Amino acid sequence: MDIGSSIRAIRKRKHITIAQICEETGLSQGFMSQVENNKTSPSIATLDSIARALNVPLAYLLLKKEERMNIVRSEERLVTKSGADHLNVEHLSRTKSIRMMIVEFPPGSSTGGTPHAHEGEEVHVVVQGTILAEQGEDSARLGVGDSFSWNACTPHRVTNIGEDTAVVLIAVYTEAEQEHDLL
Fold first, then answer.
1. What's the structural domain count of the chain?
2. Which of 68, 108, 120, 126 sits at a 20 to 30 Å CA gap from 23?
3. Rounded distance, CA 5 to CA 8, Å?
4. Looking at the whole model, is its pTM more than 0.85?
């Protein structure tokens, strides 16, 4: 864990000197230097004191880099094609277990000729157009602003039943990281 580098980066970003941290926490400058250079591991109580001096939550100091905020600019989004209808999929962002994407469904297109299943849970919001969502014996016609969710282990399919392109925002939760196509 690289807590020291995080402390130094936060301190510098906030224009706080080591002396100011030491004054507020009662720690020595030598000790703070060792902490920032990852040469010593402070106790939780000491980290809490440093976090308060930096005005950040203790939990933030304990996050790994990959657990912190990840920004994907719109022009940097990965765009892929999915299914037989080559649906346009814009990958918005992800964590270890959650993926968010925007899927465009041209008129008449669907996630596949037959319903399919996979691990995970999905939440959908119709942003544009009209779709038919089918899962097992259930089906529903949904329009702009409507949302639905399902456990993806039951075969399901989404079809654009409107005359214009449908756009659906989808969040997919899986317990394990997966790279394969989940639509």
1. 2
2. 68
3. 5
4. no
